[in-house]
C-alpha cells in the first residue's frame, strides 16, 4: 500500500524563515519495513512456577555494523511447567530497558520438551553505542503455551553502562524472579518506524538539488494506546521547528480502528543549508482523530537536543539521546536512508 509524498520548501535564517509551499502527490512503491511486534515486557503468566536454573550467553558490539549482539547459547535446570507431563517448551526473549525506550523484542526459537534447551542463536539490535550505554538488557526465559498463556521461567537484567565490553566469552548467569523495577517503570506510548535522509545541495549533480533536502518517511507505528474498544483512529503531524505556521505543517491520512497503523507517507523539506541541521528539529506527533477534538498519543523530536535554535533558547530542542543519535547518523551519512524504531513520548 502506498501513500502520498509531500514536498515543502523553506528559507532558513538565524531568526526566522519564510515558507513558500508547494505539494505534490506521487506513488511510492511499498517497501518492507522492520518486522516484529512490540509487545509488553510483562505479558504472560508470572505466578505459575518459581524461577530457577541458569542461562549461558555472551554480549558483543559490532562497531563496523553498529550492531548490538546477544549470543544466546543454552539454559540448564529450568523449572518444569507441565508437571503431569514433566515438560517445558522454553524460549528466550530480550528487550532494551528501562527509559521507556522500546527498541523492540527479540526472541529465540522454541525448544520443546526440555529443561536444558540449546539455542546457539544471535539476537541483534541496530543501535548506536552511545545510546546502548544508557540501556539495560532484560533477558527472560518463557515456556511457550499453544493457547498464548506463556509462563515466566526467570530473567536477568544487565546494566550496559557498566558492562565489560572486552568480555566476549560465554558465561553462565542465574535466573531470577521478575524484578519490580521492570514491572513498575514503563509508560509505553508506542514505537514509530521511520527513515530519514539528508540530500546536500548539488550532491546529485550540478545544482541538483538546488538546496539541501530532508526526507522523512513515516512507515508505521506499533502498539498505540487503545482509547476505545474499536481501537484508535490515528494520524501523524509533522513540523520542522522553529516554523510552526499552519501553512508549513504536514500530516498523514487517518488510519481507522488500528493500534498498529501503516502510514507509508513521505515528506520532503527543501531549502536547507547543511548548517541548518544543527538548529532545526523535526517534530512528529501521533494523534487520535475525533470529530470535536484530536487526542495527543505521543511524539518524537529529531534534532541535536541542545536547547538552542539559532542562538535562542527553546524548550522544544529537547531530543532524547536516542533521537539525537538518529539525527546525528543522518547528518553524517548524506544521501543514505537511516532507519529507526523510536519510542513515542510525552512532549
TrEMBL record:
It comes from the Eukaryota. One of its GO terms (molecular function) is neurexin family protein binding. CDD domains: C2A_SLP-1_2 (cd08393), C2B_SLP_1-2-3-4 (cd04020). The keyword Cell membrane applies. GO terms for biological process: exocytosis. GO terms for cellular component: exocytic vesicle; plasma membrane. The keyword Translocase does not apply. InterPro entries: C2_dom, C2_domain_sf, SYTL1-5_C2B. Signal peptide: none annotated. Its main location: membrane. Keywords: Cell membrane, Exocytosis, Membrane, Repeat. Coiled coil: none annotated. It is found in: Cell membrane. Residues 51-173, 188-317 form the C2 domain. It holds the Pfam family C2. This is Synaptotagmin-like protein 2.
